[in-house]
Write a structure and sequence with these properties.
The protein is mainly beta. Helices cover about 10% and strands about 45% of the residues.
């Protein structure tokens, strides 16, 4: 039984079997999909006006997102997002008309809306009009009008089969086109729209008061509304390409209708029909030409044709066309997307009157050509010019020299963003050649903004050829090379995610198709940039590498423009190096300070400002050493003097005293005559008897300093705070206008003293103890109550001593954070800290605090393994007088400290959320790499960054970036800029193949990627090839690669570590072998068939350790399968292989010696005989249907089946008894059948799986009557194709809410106390990936939390149809109410709450709208109060029901979001 320990599985329990208690889940989207289903450009924000740049609304995955654009047409930032519970077909922009029935982007509206509308069509027939409105300084999407299309049509098979919504270019009507038969025209009655009805969601404006539906009697390829003649603006012309049902001929149908009015009745009728030539293939797109009235283009597989409405009316089948360039192998290069890009003035051809048609205009020197851009399947970009002669020219837009030329521009979404002037239509008479900006959505590739540049040396042809008959015209090649493009990344592609892995430092997932394949490395947290790095070294020190142990920063007066200059002091190799930045920006040694502190043991250093009689801005540097406190005077003139004035000694330690800590407090004393800003120096004193005292010394005035130069100690009066134990840390903080000093001792305890000015005292200050915290007592209480602690209270008291402390507070919330020396942090919520005895008029007399702060709640958080240190990031000046002015006048500063830096092994930011909770997020570098080991972080003086990085400081004063200084292990000091908002930072690692599976090798630090390389049209074989690559995640370098046989695809990848007397590490690859395709066979028979599979085992070896002995001659298989880069130091060495009769779909290691594989319907257990160098088949089990996935937990094997959900097996290894053999025994199976894509065993009695169509389910131990069949526990349909499910977390979190439960509570109780906090928290989350590029997080929640969220969801869905709490679009039998599986098993949503609605409640609703939702469900508030109720019967709730609901939603949303 090598490799197995005692495992008591709940699957095998035979006694006390009861029906499993319900399990409740909460699921939310962690990473949104990147697939774009449509995009619309318009002025959607009313308050910005039409002189600004337009906005871009995109249907990304299951949501609508609004992005802002800047002047050059680049995406600036995300504005707003809203979930959509429907499958979006397409979106567009509806521009409300003006009195001239046409407007540009700069023209005003004449109706009350004032902004463009977004038209959204869903697959179930919902047509919605949305606008962007502002609420409380932010934006959101709002439903203005919603209707059901084709409601009265006789639809076959109860399926609408909608195709698209066509918007009239003059906003007169919207046409909904179905794939089969039906066309519905919805005229828009703008006169019935008023601005007052927009704000009232209970009224129905009625824009679509009438509708006309017509039967096209065939399959509709595409349709479009044409631009009418200027004299017929009330006329609506609709053209559709239809494949007739009876004769299968392709005809162009021309329909006519009129705008509703007094003289016209809205009707839609066919006025003409034009058959297309038999040689023309089926049209794919009908493209209207806005500037060529009543004209359009037909785009099919091979050509572009020009057609006009008069031509259809006259029955003229002589259609002008231009072929599209084909691929090198002769196959057509299909058009993927197009966009109309205004007009261009070109030279006209000289044609005789006999060759001119009657409908053609007279000859002129220039004509106006419509310009379009198209992208093809091969990723090429063409510029198309269409003149009304007619003539069509195609110009290949090439990648500009020096840009990335291998970028493929493909995708079904394409928009013209405008030229540099950002106008929809360019002036044809203008000679200025402005670049065009295009948005090109990627098809499993990055979405880019393309800038098309016209070569100034190119000249247009002198003569444009005449139109011709239906003949295979040659493409216009004389224009090639005249246009170039450059691109900029707009949105990173994340689809398809075929596999992913979760690591403590980062998350990895596959993306991209073909050679654009990549592995995305993502880190969730606050982005960090290294803006500036300086090397501060002592001129007298040696050149050895020195490590800084302490860092201080402050500011001094300067003659520079801003009046101040930054200074820094670094402790290096036992000495202290002060540096100052001069006027030229160069760093120099601060001689005036260096000679006084070089040989001292420095404790702290800071600057204090004074105002003397001459008002010269005297500033002193306050230095606290282990034996004295002294001031070094400095002025703006004396900064560069090598020999400054001697220091003024303020205080000296006695023979039995040592100064250990120091700090400066600036406070305003309120006298009857005037208000004076005074400074106090706080010094921690330790005696030989291990007694600690805090000595508060009043700093002298500026005139007194001038008189006491080098006169010895000058201050004899001070205040002392005696402590019962030796002090471990000290920090001065300000909460509102109150000042405190936090003192930690070795007992271990923490004391909070309040410091108040007093004119009657000799020192002018009074200190009083307001709070004492026993850390040991809190840890003992938190040991059993916290969700994830990782810290145990034991005999090692030194580990729980306070290393630092700080206060995190807002206007109504105060938290005391205590950092411990063992790497943990105690978080205490304090009440009354800012009042300290001052009555609160907002509270009743019975609830009034007694004047002493109290601890309301506590939490223990594991941060790292080294002592925790905080850095206060509250906005403050570096001069004492400005500190006093800020505290007296700045209400924002007085409201509290919103965030602090937390440093242990890593750097975090602790901040207060909108619901009053503490959120701790990791800091990561923007380039995806790890932050260097930081020893200390201090705030950066404003002088450091205000002059050089002013562009990063917003004008409105909002703090979006944090500047701080850090000292790393290499001895360098860096200026860091940190984003205040945490987000996902994705770094793309190109792999050159289409990745299918990815794993990491911990020993080498490399990433192993297995994928396929699809066959290109130019290759001889049309079947893809497969390979395995070992890649360095830091730089993307490929260290080794292994190729597989032709017609072989990779399906699975797994690591196999064999533990024994000698350990072995192998890389196992499961492949499928397929038959060679026969080009002569058409249809389904041409699809390659699976004929077998292989298990191939490799060893990732380092070539640097190779011996120089004689090597074995590799076999033919080794030569073909193994490659490596000798310079890189690694190679993939072929070891063994096992041929199977079916593809190897899944692999999993079993114990220390076994490997299990799923091949077809067989599950086979293998064992490696290292001595004999062969794989031994130990046992197998056969299923009825092919297996799709494997997961192992102890000796239990969970097998996902393609039709029978999951099966549970028990593996029995062999023993020492004679005749003992291994066996696989089926012990459980599911009672319902779904096509499982992947399954995981979460606990001894719980399995979670995903259906290929998107149904997520969980099954558990059955009741006693049916112990073999698995019980259905919970399920929900995500509505998209799912690929993989794994346990872990993509976000490094330090704590979890109390309502989040572990999946396996029995094993959670057995977790060791010193286990890594990330490993513990990762056991709480289940991650599901989708082919669309999304990641979903599933967590287990308590029953009470589930009922609150479930009632909240019901209340939101029961609101009025246009209430903001309702989803923008909601399908029938929606995912929120009755989510069903597409497999036909009718599995409903049960015991799982979709967090999408909960997040919308928190982020998109105002306070009054949230209160309306709670009023809709009366018992919702009672459930929330009961959920957070105190166990004490007499305790009163501290928050309202609405605040408790917000707190619950925020806490669960934060766990599932980035």
């Amino acid at each position: 039984m090598s490799g197995f320990t005692s495992f008591s599985s709940a699957w095998e329990a035979e006694v006390h079997l009861k029906k499993k208690s319900p399990v409740y889940g909460y699921i939310s989207e962690t990473l949104s999909s990147s697939m774009i289903k449509g995009a619309a450009l318009g002025n959607f924000r009313k308050d910005l006006g039409f002189s600004s740049s337009p906005d871009l609304i995109m249907a990304v995955g299951t949501s609508l997102s609004v992005f802002s654009l800047d002047a050059p047409g680049m995406l600036v930032g995300h504005v707003s997002s809203a979930p959509v519970f429907a499958n979006i077909l397409n979106i567009g922009c509806l521009q409300p008309p003006t009195e001239h029935h046409h407007r540009s982007f700069a023209e005003p509206h004449i109706i009350g809306l004032g902004s463009d509308l977004c038209v959204v069509l869903a697959e179930d027939g919902q047509l919605a009009l949305l606008n962007v409105e502002e609420i409380g300084g932010r934006y959101r999407l709002r439903t203005l009008e919603k209707t059901a299309v084709l409601a009265d049509a006789e639809v076959e098979n109860e399926s609408l089969m909608l195709h698209k919504a066509v918007i009239d270019p003059f906003s007169r009507a919207i046409t909904v086109v179905s794939w089969i038969n039906h066309i519905e025209l919805l005229p828009i009655d703008w006169a019935n729209r008023s601005a007052a009805q927009v704000a009232d969601y209970s009224q129905t404006p009625g824009l679509f008061r009438s509708r006309i539906c017509i039967d096209a009697d065939g399959a509709i390829c595409d349709a479009a509304i044409l631009s009418p003649l200027r004299s017929e603006m009330q006329r609506i012309l609709l053209v559709a390409a239809v494949v007739e049902r009876t004769n299968r001929h392709i005809n162009l149908h021309l329909y006519e209708s009129w705008v509703p009015g007094a003289s016209h009745r809205p009707a839609l009728g066919m006025v003409a029909k034009l058959p297309l030539p038999y040689s023309m293939s089926t049209p794919m797109y009908v493209v209207p030409l806005p500037d060529h009235r009543e004209c359009f283009l037909l785009i099919n597989e091979c050509e572009i044709a020009f057609v006009s409405a008069p031509q259809i009316l006259s029955g003229d089948v002589n259609i002008y066309h231009q072929p599209i360039p084909r691929l090198p192998n002769g196959q057509p290069d299909l058009v993927k997307a197009y966009c109309v890009a205004g007009t261009k003035a070109i030279l006209s051809a000289h044609m005789s009157d006999s060759s001119r048609r009657p409908s053609e205009p007279l000859l002129s020197s220039t004509i106006l050509a419509q310009k379009l851009y198209i992208t093809t399947q091969s990723g090429k970009l063409y510029c198309v010019l269409v003149s009304p002669r007619p003539h069509i020219s195609l110009t290949r837009v090439s990648a500009k020299q020096g840009s990335v030329s291998d970028i493929i521009l493909s995708g079904e979404s394409m928009l013209f963003l405008g030229s540099h002037s950002h106008k929809r239509y360019r002036n044809a008479d203008s000679a200025e050649a402005s670049p065009d900006y295009l948005f090109v959505g990627g098809d499993c590739a990055d979405h880019r903004i393309v800038r098309v540049i016209e070569d100034s040396s190119w000249q247009e042809p002198a003569c444009w050829p005449k139109h011709g008959p239906m003949q295979p015209n040659e493409p216009t090649s004389s224009l090639d090379g005249s246009l170039f493009w450059t691109s900029r990344l707009a949105l990173v592609n994340q689809s398809p995610i075929s596999d992913f892995m979760l690591q403590p430092e980062a998350s990895y997932w596959t993306s991209g198709l073909s050679s654009n394949g990549a592995v995305n490395r993502a880190q969730f947290g606050h982005g960090v940039r290294v803006e500036e790095t300086i090397g501060i070294t002592n001129a007298d020190a040696s050149s050895v590498n020195i490590t800084p142990t302490s860092l201080w920063s402050f500011a001094l007066p300067s003659i520079a423009a801003n009046g101040i200059t930054p200074c820094v002091v670094v402790q290096q190799a036992g000495t202290y190096v002060p540096a100052i930045r001069d006027i030229d920006g160069e760093w120099q040694l601060m001689h005036m300070l260096h000679q006084f502190i070089e040989a001292k043991q420095l404790v702290s250093v800071d600057s204090v400002g004074f105002s003397d009689a001459a008002n010269t801005g005297v500033c002193c540097v306050v230095c606290v050493t282990s034996e004295s406190v002294f001031l070094v005077k400095s002025t703006a003139i004396a900064l560069a003097i090598p020999e400054p004035s001697p220091p003024v000694i303020i205080s000296c330690a006695k023979s039995d005293e040592v100064f250990t800590h120091g700090g400066i407090l600036s406070m305003t004393t309120d006298d009857s005559i005037d208000s004076v800003c005074r400074n106090w120096i706080l010094v921690a004193v330790r005696t030989k008897q291990m007694r600690s005292v805090i000595r508060i010394i009043s700093a002298p005035a500026a005139e007194y300093i001038d008189c006491q130069m080098d006169q010895g100690p000058s201050v004899d009066s001070f205040v002392e705070l005696e402590l019962p134990h030796e002090m471990s840390c000290m920090r001065i903080v300000s909460v509102g206008k109150a000042n405190f000093v936090l003192v930690g001792t070795y007992e271990p305890k923490l004391y909070v003293f309040q410091l108040s000015p007093c004119t009657n005292s000799t020192s002018g200050i009074i200190a009083s103890l307001v709070l004492g915290v026993d850390i040991t007592e809190h840890l003992a209480r938190l040991e059993t109550s916290t969700v994830v602690s990782g810290t145990q209270v034991n005999d090692n008291i030194a580990g729980v001593v306070a290393s630092d402390a700080c206060v995190l507070c807002s206007a109504d919330k105060q938290f005391l954070l205590i950092g411990l020396r063992n790497g943990s942090m105690v978080q205490l919520e304090i009440s009354g800290l800012s009042r300290c005895g001052t009555p609160d008029p907002s509270r009743s007399a019975s609830d009034q605090d007694t004047g002493v702060p109290r601890v309301r709640s506590s939490e223990l958080i594991r941060v790292g393994l080294v002592p925790v240190v905080f850095t206060d990031l509250s906005p403050s000046s570096f001069f004492s007088e400005q500190r006093c002015e800020l505290a007296a006048s700045d209400t924002k500063h007085c409201s509290g400290i919103p965030r602090v830096l937390v440093l242990s092994e890593s750097l975090f930011i602790a901040s207060l959320s909108s619901v009053g909770t503490v959120t701790i997020s990791l800091c990561v570098l923007h380039d995806g790499q790890q932050i260097p080991e930081i020893r200390q972080v201090v705030p950066a003086p404003p002088a450091w960054y205000q002059d050089r990085y002013s562009y990063m400081i917003p004008v409105d004063g909002a703090q979006h970036t944090i500047f701080c200084l850090s000292a790393d292990a290499s001895g360098t000091v860096s200026l860091l800029s940190i984003d205040t908002v945490a987000q996902c930072h994705v770094h793309e690692i190109p792999v050159g193949i289409e990745p299918r599976r990815v794993i990491s090798d911990k020993e080498t630090g490399l990433m192993l990627v297995a994928g396929i390389v699809p066959a290109f049209p130019t290759s001889t074989s049309m079947f893809p090839t497969s390979s395995l690559k070992a890649i360095d995640t830091r730089d993307g370098h490929i260290h080794a690669e292994a190729q597989f046989d032709p017609y072989e695809l990779v399906h699975s990848l797994e690591k196999w570590h064999i533990q024994g007397p000698k350990s072995y590490r192998y890389i196992c690859v499961g492949t499928g072998q397929y038959s060679e395709p026969n080009p002569s066979i058409q249809g389904l028979d041409a699809v390659p068939r699976a004929v077998g599979g292989r298990l191939v085992i490799y060893n990732l070896k380092s070539t640097k350790r190779k011996s120089r002995g004689k090597s074995e001659k590799p076999s033919r298989k080794q030569k073909s399968d193994t490659t490596g880069n000798a310079a890189s130091g690694y190679e993939l060495r072929y070891i063994w292989e096992s041929k199977r009769s079916a593809p190897v779909r899944a692999l999993a290691h079993l114990g220390d010696s076994y490997l299990i594989l799923a091949s077809g319907t067989l599950c086979v257990v293998l064992k490696l005989d290292v001595v004999q160098k062969q794989l031994i088949e130990c046992c197998e089990a056969e299923l009825r249907f092919p297996a799709s996935s494997l997961d192992v937990r102890g000796n239990v094997v969970v097998v996902g089946s393609s039709r029978e959900t999951v099966h549970v097996f028990r593996f029995v290894p062999s023993t020492a008894d004679p005749g003992s053999v291994e066996s696989l025994q089926m012990i459980h199976s599911a009672r319902f059948g779904v096509n499982t894509a992947d399954a995981r065993c979460l606990a001894n009695d719980l399995v979670v799986g995903i259906d290929t169509s998107g149904y997520l389910y969980a099954v558990g131990i059955p009741d006693e009557s049916r112990e073999f069949a698995l019980d259905f526990i919970m399920g929900i349909n995500l509505g998209t194709e799912c690929t993989r499910v794994k346990m872990g977390s993509p976000v490094r979190r330090l704590s979890l809410p109390t309502h989040v439960l572990p999946w396996d509570r029995s094993e959670h109780n057995k977790l060791p106390g010193q286990q890594n906090a990330y490993q513990q928290i990762s056991e709480y989350s289940v991650i599901i990936s989708t082919a669309a590029g999304a990641l979903w997080t599933l967590i287990r929640i308590s029953k009470s939390a589930y009922h609150v969220l479930h009632r909240l969801e019901q209340a939101m869905l029961d609101m009025e149809a246009k209430h903001p709490a309702r989803p923008l679009m909601l399908e029938t039998d929606s995912i929120a109410r009755n989510r069903q599986s597409d497999t036909g098993s009718q599995l409903l949503s049960e015991n799982i709450v979709d967090g999408t609605l909960s997040r919308m409640f928190l982020e998109n609703l105002t306070d009054s709208e949230q209160a309306q939702v709670l009023d809709r469900c009366p018992d919702l508030g009672q459930l929330a109060l009961r959920l957070f109720s105190s166990p004490a019967p007499s305790a009163k709730p501290t928050l309202s029901a609405l605040e408790y609901v917000r707190l619950l939603v925020y806490s669960l949303t934060s766990v599932c979001s980035c």
